[in-house]
Specification:
By secondary structure, the chain is mostly helical. The protein contains 14 helices and 4 strands. α7 crosses α11. The radius of gyration is 24 Å and the shape is elongated.
Length: about 290
């Protein structure tokens, strides 16, 4: 990458950090994609639409998701250059636009979730520390729809008696309020009796908190105990179940977007695929023409 291009990329990333609140991980990803784009194009600042149109052939062996990500990075970068007056034209219309279907999330039905809870509750009734902890983890994963990283990183005081919500720091260091059920609150309070008083984390492990890998192992173990194939279950599958079952119960899509911490509602809309039967029933029951006879 030329010194001029590097200076432009640095200014772009400074803007992303200051105005968009992009995380270090996001900034690194943008830099990598822009550097690779510069290598392919032979430069960024002066790349023409004709130059950009050749990227499709150069990226033909890449996965559609990778092409989409690189195109998005360049599109935003070229838009920044135009906005800031570094160039008059925006060549991003010539960028590849791959078509791909987003994979549908794996989910558990409500009966399978019930079985996991019954098994976890039976084990926790013994009072054994690990079993009590596992029930608290399950309650928070399915009851609040937390991401694995959000759950394991909860501070000790995250759940307070009588407070019906959690303050969670999600992707991009963005905070959001997440409801916590009375069941989850009870499970967490029982678990806190096993947590050392000086521990800064709700789920401590060694000198830090429980790792995402260990959480993954625990969730699969809970599934096996309930007679569910472990390879069908993960912390993210339980988050999907939280979203799907809420939507089936009548939750508004915008509310669900807020609960899940999705920046774009298009990400949340993927859950509507499991709700088709309910939507047909709703149309038949509520549409003004539904009760009109021929």
């Amino acid at each position: 990458m030329s010194p001029d291009d590097r200076a432009l990329v640095d200014r772009f990333l400074d803007m992303m950090a200051a105005e968009a609140g992009a995380s270090k991980h996001t900034l690194t990803a943008y830099r990598n994609d822009l550097e690779r784009g510069a290598e392919t194009l032979g430069g960024l600042g002066n790349a023409s639409a004709a130059d950009v149109s050749k990227l499709g052939a150069g990226w033909s062996d890449l996965a559609p998701s990778t092409v989409a990500r690189r195109s998005a990075a360049l599109r935003r970068f070229f838009g920044f250059l135009v906005d800031e007056g570094f160039r008059r034209d925006d060549p991003s219309s010539a960028l590849p636009r791959p078509r791909f279907e987003r994979p549908l999330p794996r989910i558990l039905d409500e009966d399978e979730v019930r079985r996991m809870f019954e098994s976890a509750e039976d084990r926790a009734a013994s009072g054994e520390g690990a079993a009590v902890r596992n029930l608290a983890l399950l309650e928070l994963l399915y009851g609040s729809g937390l991401r694995a990283s959000e759950l394991v990183g909860l501070p000790r005081a995250a759940v307070r008696p009588g407070q019906p919500f959690l303050m969670v720091r999600g992707k991009g260091a963005k905070d959001r309020l997440v409801p916590i059920s009375s069941r989850a609150e009870t499970a967490v309070q029982q678990w806190l009796e096993h947590v050392p008083s000086g521990a800064p984390w709700l789920f401590p492990s060694g000198k830090s908190h429980l790792s995402r890998v260990r959480l993954f192992q625990i969730v699969r173990s809970l599934a096996a105990d309930a007679g569910i194939p472990p390879d069908r279950v993960s912390p993210h599958v339980l988050r999907h179940a939280f979203a799907t079952h809420l939507l089936s119960g009548g939750a508004d899509l915008r509310v669900l977007q807020s609960l899940l911490g999705h920046a774009d509602i298009a990400t949340t809309q993927i859950y509507t695929h499991v709700d088709s039967a309910r939507l047909v029933e709703l149309v038949n029951a509520r549409h003004p023409l539904a009760t009109r006879s021929r």
